[in-house]
Amino acid sequence: MEKFTTHTGVGVPLRRSNVDTDQIIPAVYLKRVTRTGFEDALFAAWRGDESFVLNQPAYASGSVLVAGPDFGTGSSREHAVWALKDYGFRAVLASRFADIFRGNSGKQGLLAAQVAQEDIELLWKVLENEPGTEVTVDLVERTASAGDVTVQIHVDDYTRWRLMEGLDDIGLTLQHEDEITAFEARRESWRPKTLPAKHLPKQEIVAARPAGA
Amino acid sequence: MAGTLAEKVWDAHLVRRGVDGAPDLLYIDLHLLHEVTSPQAFEGLRLAGRTLRRTDLTIATEDHNTPTLDIDLPIADLTSRTQIDTLRANAKEFGVRLHSLGDADQGIVHQVGPQLGLTMPGLTVVCGDSHTSTHGAFGALAFGIGTSEVEHVMATQTLPLAPFRTMAINVEGELPPGTTSKDIILAIIAKIGTGGGQGYVLEYRGEAIRKLSMEARMTICNMSIEAGARAGMIAPDQTTFDYLEGRPHAPEGADWDAAVEYWKTLRTDDDAVFDAEVTLHASDLEPFVTWGTNPGQGLPLSANVPVPELIADENDRIAAERAIEYMGLVPGAPLRDLKIDTVFIGSCTNGRIEDLRSVAKVLKGKKKAADTRVLVVPASARVRLQAEAEGLDKIFLDFGAEWRNAGCSMCLGMNPDQLTPGERAASTSNRNFEGRQGKGGRTHLVSPLVAAATAIRGTLSSLADLDLPEGTDLTTFDGSPLAPLDPNVLVQV
């Protein structure tokens, strides 16, 4: 995972609350089996609207998204994080994030930092008054600055450390493999196993046909 | 020390307590997979040269992309077919049990786990799908995860998790006739908002919850995520044990006895303290519908479309204006007058046998509204078989509905079952986001009973709007659990 300490890039004001992951990337784009190449899918339903913020030249190359509250709600799709990253975003600032989205971001090196809503409003004003203004997000100092505005950002200590070190979770966990094995030895026998498979007798499933066919 | 249900299950899965701000490492009892959020995780394992640690705690099914028509033909959409083929190849390569399209155990992943008896109290259950919260109805700690976490569970059978807070949702009193557990959860989300549960595990408690069947409890826990909570739980009781006993993977003999003895301890201690509490009176509830584009934008069916000018909070007002425009609504107009183009009955929220039974009971002997399309999509192939054994399919077909094969279907429109731009749906599913059921589609979330009444009248309706025969007992419209299974017919493969 790429390390994240500070990042400076064009700030994009997204004045919407409850931006769910279906808006970040609609389900039709989830059929791909790759982890990259989702830039075209980001906010796909809104990209056709000329007035949408990313369609304005000054914001098109944005890399710091400043969004309304409850960003990333809904589906667990990590594709939402991949699409933001593939487009070029390195950080999202909002007053509240959905839990799964925030977790997914942390795994992929996308900074999802909490900022008080009144500070979001200050950043929005700067970015809207001077489209193309850059935002500097400093994870070391826990600040975000744009123009003459500097605000606090909130990231939990552990996520911050992992982002700054660029650490891979699986590698970290496997350092404790002996503890996992010891735990497995203690598990009760009633806990279910999927194998060998048990099920009711096989039955033929009749295919439904289109109405009128 | 006194603990809540969620804390007890958490503590029983601690592989390692986190120090210096590091998260706890939790063991995962059951990992469910489907075709959409797993391919990149399998690829990650392959690239790192890792194996899938516990194939015997992992099970996969095909649900999101699968067509609900012509399932014996090759999948027409090539990208969907590729994704399904990728899951099949990965399952084979890594040794994962897979129930494919056409198999009697195929279906929506959150129905497959419970009906096989794999979902049980006291487990940790994860899946790359946010509606994994469904399994919390059994007293399991169950939550959706992203693909990086899917890969993490595949490789280690654990997850590093930051501690959560606990919220009690007390639902007191008794549900009025014609209302269901769907109305309870829609009312809860409208009350606490789509962000109200962020950072919390919810525990649904109270008289109204205890009286619900297992399937009705699953509907409530399913939509915990719509209130922002990763997980929602209900303490196991006799209803839970009765549902589980005799299912293919339920414990047997001494294991069953030991399990039940332990499961009975899985309740919040009387002196335990929740970080937050919310109380709702079920007796006040009416059939609930959503009018907007997030599940928190819901109102009783008897209400009118909100008037944005009257909303004080600026963010809420802007959101309401946008939603009203997208949904093509008139502020102040009665919700009851809305004409519905499509009724969708299905999904991991309301596609189970009880849902189909209660819908069939309303539709029996009637004909659908002339201009309304009605889709009935069972949550799993077993649910379809059971419905057919009970003759429900005949009722749906005589009514003029389409009776489909199992899958996620129109809930998220990854398969051909989609709304067209501007099309208005009454849907028993879980999300009314813009474009969720098809680009430009307009979704109103409803209970199965409201869906059924709407299918008859062609406008958003409840049972009270129907000319039901004098003396019809509306309280029996909640169905009964799946018939107990005969353990003697279990097979092993």
TrEMBL record, chain A:
It is an enzyme of class 4 (lyase). It catalyses: (2R,3S)-3-isopropylmalate = (2S)-2-isopropylmalate. It holds the Pfam family Aconitase_C. Pathway: Amino-acid biosynthesis; L-leucine biosynthesis; L-leucine from 3-methyl-2-oxobutanoate: step 2/4. Keywords: Amino-acid biosynthesis, Branched-chain amino acid biosynthesis, Leucine biosynthesis, Lyase. Residues 1-117 form the Aconitase A/isopropylmalate dehydratase small subunit swivel domain. This is 3-isopropylmalate dehydratase small subunit. It comes from Flavimobilis rhizosphaerae. The lineage of its organism: Bacteria, Bacillati, Actinomycetota, Actinomycetes, Micrococcales.
Automatic annotation (TrEMBL), chain B:
Belongs to the aconitase/IPM isomerase family. LeuC type 1 subfamily. GO terms for molecular function: 3-isopropylmalate dehydratase activity. Residues 419-440 are annotated as: Disordered. It comes from the Bacteria. Coiled coil: none annotated. Binds 1 [4Fe-4S] cluster per subunit. Gene3D superfamilies: Aconitase, domain 3. This is 3-isopropylmalate dehydratase large subunit. Its EC number is 4.2.1.33. Keywords: 4Fe-4S, Amino-acid biosynthesis, Branched-chain amino acid biosynthesis, Iron, Iron-sulfur, Leucine biosynthesis, Lyase, Metal-binding. Pfam families: Aconitase. Residues 7-458 form the Aconitase/3-isopropylmalate dehydratase large subunit alpha/beta/alpha domain.
